[in-house]
Amino acid sequence: MFPTPPIPTPQHHIQTAVIGAGVIGLSIARALACQHAHEVLLLERAHAIGSGISSRNSQVLHAGIYYDRNAMPLKAQFCIDGQKSIYEYCRRRNIPHKRCGKLVVAANREQRDAALPRLMECAARNGVRDLRMLSKHDVADLEPNVVSEGAVLSPSTGIVDSHALLTSFLADAEQCGATLALNCRVQGGYVLPSESRGNGRRRIVLIVDGAEIACDNVVVSAGLSSDIIASNILSSITHDTTQPVHKPPSSCLPTQYYAKGNYFKLENQKSPFERLIYPLPDPNGGLGIHATIDLSGTIKFGPDVEWLDCDLDDHPESKIDMNVDPTRADSFYRAIRKYWPDLKDGNIVPDYSGIRPKLWHPRRHFGKDGTKDFVIAGKEWHGLSGLVVLLGIESPGLTSSLAIGQHVANMLR
Length: 413
Description:
alpha+beta; eight-stranded mixed beta sheet; five-stranded antiparallel beta sheet
């Protein structure tokens, strides 16, 4: 018999590729390069960093009060650890931020007597100890323009200049040797047999704009496309019959669904609040249409929850209309006037929208299946060493970014 010819390997090689230069990908690249001395290539399909999910959110630093640590342990832990880390990082790097505080308001007595105490209990289980229960009179003293039956005050909630934060993460990563490649779309990938490395581990090859790059490690933090890219890579193992692989099928990774969040901004009225104002969470999948104040003092309201077609597949971002439908203003007026009845007609205008990747959909799971937690899938999920896939990284992703970066870096150390 003739010997089996060696399997050709790509000419380009990198130790670790991170797909996606949003706040999570940048944090991961920073931790890998600076703490574990990885050779890191950061691949971003857009022309700039942070141009996807990271640039289309409320820029709020959350305290960790919403996340049931039994049902959402990663969100609970990463949010609390991440907020502390972000505040310290911003202080050291002079990144603009403000610990402005937040009120979660009860619209009626039922919410005051049941929902607010449940929120306090959830926060206490997570280790958040600085919340205060306020009466309607306390609320009126703090925020005279807010109408409520009571509220929970979260003094540690704040806001941050997310663009400055992302730029600082990138500077750290590049100072430690990481390389950023913009306008580079990862079209897919495949896994080479273990013989290609000679140590039992299998090298992952990424196809980037037609070129092939062999990687010892790959981190998929590509936002809306993470599940698509990861499934493409893992499906190559199923098709490889050169040796048995003891792993779950690529379908073991959960599917991402998409919820569009629309924002409106206030015009022609003076800013009525000193703090962030939130209703209680929306059972349809969000935190409710809340009022946030950016560092320039602009008030914006949102996001709402607009569930998109649950059958969106390849490159979903290209199929989503990111414009804000002006007719949604009616539902915004109704929601906002529950806590700020003095909002005048015509004084909110469409601003921007963002897409949140979620791991459940009301038309698919009916609240019984799926998960509302982050998923950070390593070998124990899919059976492939060196591959880490991040799914469902929505709020509180910005707050959690440093903690997630540290966690993923430790997985690949």
